[in-house]
Amino acid sequence: MRQITHSLAPGVALSGSRLSDVFDPNAGTVQAQVTLGDAALLDRAVAAAAAAQPAWAATNPQRRARVMFEFKRLVEANMEELARLLSSEHGKVIADAKGDIQRGLEVIEFACGIPHALKGEYTQGAGPGIDVYSMRQPLGIGAGITPFNFPAMIPLWMSGIALATGNAFILKPSERDPSVPVRLAELFLEAGLPEGVLQVVQGDKEMVDAILDHPGISAVSFVGSSDIAHYVYRRGVEAGKRVQAMGGAKNHGIVMPDADLDQVVNDLTGAAFGSAGERCMALPVVVPVTDKTANELREALVPAIAKLRIGVSTDADAHYGPVVNAAHKARVEGWIAKGVEEGAELVVDGRGFTLQGHEQGFFIGPSLFDHVTPAMESYREEIFGPVLQMVRAASFEEALALPSQHQYGNGVAIFTRNGHAAREFAHRVNVGMVGINVPIPVPVAYHSFGGWKRSAFGDINQHGMEGVRFWTKTKTITQRWPDGGVGDGANAFVIPTMG
Ligand code: NAD
């Protein structure tokens, strides 16, 4: 059986004997095993990072940026291989796998501009002969803990900015698709990143806990489900670290009566079912305003859903592939059963779908529910599968209240031709990222990514200038130089007095 392991600085001895299965979701079989590291392994990785970080921090930002430029070139040159590897463990189709890598590379492009982002602030003459300036310095050693659903993009969100700002970085990727992060670390080395500055430690909860408790790690960036995000946030903060912890989501798409329904149907089928619904910015809830809109939308959605092609992840014509493993497939199907039990109308049932020749693969057909209500547990919780739930609203105000009152607040979209309604919605909705006629409002890399409520714990978002803030600490210097007989004595030092 093929074994997937860590990517460590030379000489870091291995430890940890447990293994975890990595599946081929298309076939439904185990294709490899990943070695799970332990606290002793992390300790040695932190020591190696601590040895490598000062020289990296002292490397001027332009040279650090050159590593980012070269890394981007290498990832682009290896795009096909990386996308196939990603797709073979995750199950998303090749086009989505390339998108996953490309969105991560956009953060690397941002990191190429790090000299500009690190310039700091300066005030001349804050007092007599006194100037004040601030600088951003790296934290030291940062760690990232990432989910299975974007095994390239999310590690690159974190590592790109953590490294460019002069930190050493330790990544603990998802044990479900651990290969691409290791490949990315190899490409970073090839791009000129010094050994020990970036390491990948494989593991599960044991490794996460070791990271959270390790006194040598100053900051932790986490992305995953909400209960674990909250746990990571609490434990990391308790240990005195800076923590950002992004959680789950239940994004709503509001459809106003004046929306372009053809466009909405097209956007919804992509945003609800693409990547088998395993995206934190998927659109699994649609809220048509008025019954007339709901009826028209439902009539158009049913045939559009029937046209979706589910296939193996290497099928270039497939809209989406299998979900990540058997446990997740059972979980999604369990939520469909729960929705039926709670009284929602199951208009299209995706359970029991099998792909000929791949009967053991983790495939789920698309499902559509109508007449879902806010009281239902299947509405309140994240399903994270190819399931679209329709919640009918009688008015704009009722539609606005649904995502605003939901426990999650990651993303939301409104479809309308009415600028006033769109503006009103964007300003008032209690959600972190808003799309106006944009179904998946993931911000571009030079803005920042972050949800509200139980979708994110901590105050600082991912990437953009917020990312730079997260991975650096501000030092402010107030300086005064005695005139040494050069000036007229006007800057003579006076001890400040109260009042
Ligand atoms: P997950 O929470 O199961 O795992 C995330 C990470 O936590 C993994 O590295 C995993 O090894 C680790 N982990 C798992 N169980 C743990 C435990 N008990 N204690 C400590 N660490 C543990 O998430 P997942 O299933 O890999 O990813 C899907 C989830 O991530 C969804 O909820 C999705 O919405 C969310 N997500 C959120 C965003 C965002 O930006 N808000 C982005 C992508 C995914």
Q: Which tags fit this structure?
A:
16 helices, seven-stranded mixed beta sheet, alpha/beta, Aldehyde Dehydrogenase, Chain A, domain 2, binds nicotinamide-adenine-dinucleotide, 499 residues, six-stranded mixed beta sheet, Aldehyde Dehydrogenase, Chain A, domain 1
CATH class of the largest domain: Alpha Beta
Distance from first to last alpha carbon: 75 Å
Inertia-based shape: globular
Mean pLDDT over the full residue set: 96
Tally of strands: 21
For the biggest β-sheet, the strand order reads 13-14-15-12-11-17-18
- Percent in helix: 25-40%
CATH superfamily of the largest domain: Aldehyde Dehydrogenase, Chain A, domain 1
Helix/strand structural class: alpha/beta
Uncertain runs with pLDDT below 50, 5 residues or more? Answer: none
Largest sheet: 7 strands, mixed
Plain-language structure description:
This protein is an alpha/beta fold and 499 residues long. The chain has two domains: 2-247 and 455-477, Aldehyde Dehydrogenase, Chain A, domain 1 (3-Layer(aba) Sandwich); 252-436, Aldehyde Dehydrogenase, Chain A, domain 2, CATH 3.40.309. Helices cover 39% and strands 20% of the residues. The chain is built from 16 helices and 21 strands. Helix 3 (79-90) crosses helix 4 (94-111). The protein is globular, with a radius of gyration of 25 Å. It binds nicotinamide-adenine-dinucleotide. The site of nicotinamide-adenine-dinucleotide (NAD) has 26 residues, from helix 8.
